[in-house]
Amino acid sequence: MNQVQERFKRFDIFGQEIRLMASGQSAFRTNIGAFMTLALFSILAYSCNSFILEMNKGKNAMLNSKETVISGEEGYTFNSTELIFAVGLLDNLGQPVPNDNNRVFSISFYYCNKSLTDTECTYIPGTICGSRIQEISQQLNIPKGYEDITYCMDEEYIKQNPEIRIQGSTRQDNFTLLGALVQRCQNSTDSNNCAPQEDIDQYIKNANLYYSYSFHQFNKELDDSPYEKAQNIDVTPMYYKVRKYIKIYFQYSQSQLEYNPFYFFPSYAQHDGFEYQNTGIDTALNFEDDSSFAQLEINLDAKKRIHFITYQTLMDVAAKIGGFFTIIRIIFEIVLFPIQSILYRLYLINCLTHQQNNVNTNTSDTPKNKTNNFLTFYRLIKSAKARQFYLNQSVLIDKFLDITEILINPLRFTRQVEDLYGSIKKFDIVSARQNNYNINQQIDELVANNNNDFADLKSLSPRTINQEMKLGSLTNFKVPQLSIN
């Protein structure tokens, strides 16, 4: 039954460890160690607060993305006032082209719904943007004068069509196009105010066409939505009798968000956006029969991008805090290890010196100054004698703490007790002869009365080092039976 209990106790993982103690504590503690501990926990508290705030703000969220084919009905719907599609023309020196009443060129826009059997296009006049691009000009650091030479879609069309949908398709059967045409001025029966053809050619062949468009930038760490509105501006040079066809490709994007701060009650949200992909420019020569010298078109790619965003949980924050705490603690331990080792060795040396002084005081009548041999870290740095004393005592302490010394001590104790028995025996024989009484009888009675309490000290050996024996004071020490020759 006892063996079963002993084996059963081995399953206890909460058992108390048996340790050596130093000044009543299981670890040697110092002031500098306590200070560094407080600093460590201060850093840890600050880090906890920062990590939790980052979790609440959606920082360090996990992101996975993939591309898939867009379906026939998917696309992005812009508010007409938010979509800025602007086009302008500058000369070869970057100055505005004089284009009063469209004497040199005209810019118009179109919006088409295309299918396999039919195409419906709406042509939209282009007008000076003015204050509509004021905010964008400030964001892009564009001079205010560009507001009066840049063309946007007509305001009347925007008011009548509050939404503009950009849609893509893999089979080219259900998609939309939004574009702009830059044309030379040509006289007609309705209008006859164009500049001379030589002047128009001179302006166009060295001109710089610039265009700006709205889109969304993806940022998983934003508060409300992972998409933020952005505006881009590009410039391309124009050449004589060269027609440019500029295609701006965008990609429909979806983001699926998972909020799970407490790890057990997730919530989901979905947002969509309109991300910029790339721009392609084609050129055509000798377009004598075509008055347009530049065409820009916004296309939606046939593939969409899906983002899966998972925000941090409290378990993730706890893991980060634990890892950060481990790293900082390792750094502190590397820094403190030599200092703590020296302070611990000083503590052992001072304890040993104190015991040596007590022994010397008991054996000598002249008191000794105990403070002279008391080592401190300051004395160890300042005094060469203190350093030499530190080294000598360290060698002695290493010898005392060696496991072989600990195993030999019981044998030495047994030999000292045997020597003590011999001295007592000689002393008793001399006393018996001088006082003329039978010592055998007295010792027999003494041993007989205390025989039950006697323990044979010669039985101590390295095999029984863990046995404990209470001998009491020296006055109650039991002497074995002696015989007189």
Description:
This protein is an alpha+beta fold. The chain has 3 domains: 24-46 and 316-400, no CATH class; 65-311, no CATH class; 403-476, no CATH class. Helices cover 36% and strands 28% of the residues. It is built from 10 helices and 14 strands. The strands form 3 sheets. Strands 1, 4, 5, 6, 8, 11, 12, 13 and 14 form a 9-stranded mixed β-sheet that branches. It has a 3-stranded antiparallel β-sheet with strand order 3-9-10, with no helix packed on it. A two-stranded antiparallel ribbon has the order 2-7. Strand 4 and strand 5 (119-128) form a beta hairpin. Helix 2 (31-57) runs antiparallel to helix 6 (314-363) and helix 6 (314-363) crosses helix 8. The two termini are 54 Å apart. Mean pLDDT is 77; it is low at 452-485.
List keywords for this structure.
single chain, 485 residues, 3 domains, elongated, disordered C terminus
What is the average of the pLDDT values?
77
Question: How far is the first residue's CA from the last residue's CA?
Answer: 54 Å
Percent range for helical residues? Answer: 25-40%
Could you say which overall geometry the principal axes of the C-alpha atoms support? elongated
Rg calculated over all Cα atoms: 48 Å
Tally of discrete structural domains: 3
List the SSEs and their pairings:
Layout: H1 2-9, H2 31-57, E1 62-69, E2 75-79, E3 85-90, E4 105-115, E5 119-128, H3 134-139, E6 151-153, H4 155-160, E7 163-167, E8 174-184, H5 197-205, E9 208-218, E10 227-237, E11 242-259, E12 267-285, E13 292-300, E14 303-310, H6 314-363, H7 377-382, H8 384-400, H9 403-435, H10 439-449
Parallel strand pairs: 11-13, 11-14
Antiparallel strand pairs: 1-14, 2-7, 3-9, 4-5, 4-8, 5-6, 8-13, 9-10, 11-12
